[in-house]
Design a protein that fits this description.
Helix content is 32%, strand content 17%. The protein contains eight helices and eight strands. The strands form two sheets. Strands 2-1-3-4 form a four-stranded parallel sheet, covered by helices on one side. Helix 1 links the parallel strand 1 and strand 2.
Length: 250
């Protein structure tokens, strides 16, 4: 008896735990379509999404064209964004051979956030947080470090902006919700530490730029920052200057 072929499953946002338990088996190869998958040309998304869509959703389109998954699970609930709803429609017409499954992650069980609060380079930490989406068990407990800086927001498409932060940076915002596996947890997303200098980040053209800027204005030492596809020298210089003026050494 021959075994069934491995299915290529794409995920957008954070599907519910029940979905991840279904596809984290040897029968599926999982692709996080939010993240660049190899050297994919982002311009291939231009005929399908306008440039005022964020770099993450344009990456989803470009990845989907390149990979041609058998099935895509896309979170179209409050845990992702309204634009994902329309992106799902675009994907259906763009990839008629791919099953597009709309999900809504209403999970409320806290899995904890040990990664967000441990001492580790911010790039490694954020990479581990995004990778945890494909895991169905809580991340093992880690020692908590005293925070000296904060990064609030979504995982950037361009991780190079994370190089300027010290290893004792704590992660807040939607990225912390990612590790906790509760992307629609507004109380957790709103949480920040007013005692440490914090960069409030969102992708350009993302609706979360409104919240990032609002919270940065309330924070005693907050910097609002948004970047599109890649982080230019100006954005990197802002982060570096902000941290240096705050007395923080990376």
């Amino acid at each position: 008896m021959t075994s069934s072929p491995i299915q290529r499953a794409g995920i957008v946002g954070i599907p519910p735990l029940s979905v991840m338990e279904l596809i984290t088996t040897p029968d599926y190869e999982i692709f996080d379509l939010d993240e660049p998958q190899g050297r994919v040309d982002l311009e291939t998304a231009s005929p399908f999404l306008p440039r005022v869509y964020c770099g993450i959703l344009r990456t989803v389109i470009a990845n989907s064209l390149a990979i041609q998954p058998d099935i895509i699970y896309i979170d179209t609930g409050a845990g992702k964004c309204d634009c994902a709803v329309h992106t799902a429609t675009v994907l259906e017409d763009m990839l008629p051979a791919t099953r597009i499954i709309r999900t809504r992650n209403n999970d409320s069980v806290d899995f904890g956030t040990p990664l967000c609060k441990t001492q580790m380079s911010l790039m490694e930490k954020m990479s581990a947080v995004t990778a945890s989406v494909q895991k169905t068990a809580p991340y093992p407990e880690l020692p908590t470090c005293a925070p000296t800086a904060g990064f609030w927001g979504v995982p950037p498409r361009d991780f190079s902006i994370l190089n300027f932060f010290p290893d004792t940076t704590h992660i807040y915002g939607w990225a912390r919700c990612m590790e906790n596996k509760t992307p629609d947890n507004m109380d957790l997303e709103l949480h920040y530490n007013p005692d440490i200098p914090t960069v409030f980040f969102a992708q350009s053209f993302c609706a979360k730029t409104a919240l990032a800027r609002h919270l940065a204005s309330k924070h005693p030492r907050g910097l609002y920052l948004d970047c599109d596809v890649t982080a230019g020298n100006s954005a990197k210089a802002k982060i570096q200057a902000f941290l240096e003026l705050s007395g923080i050494d990376a």
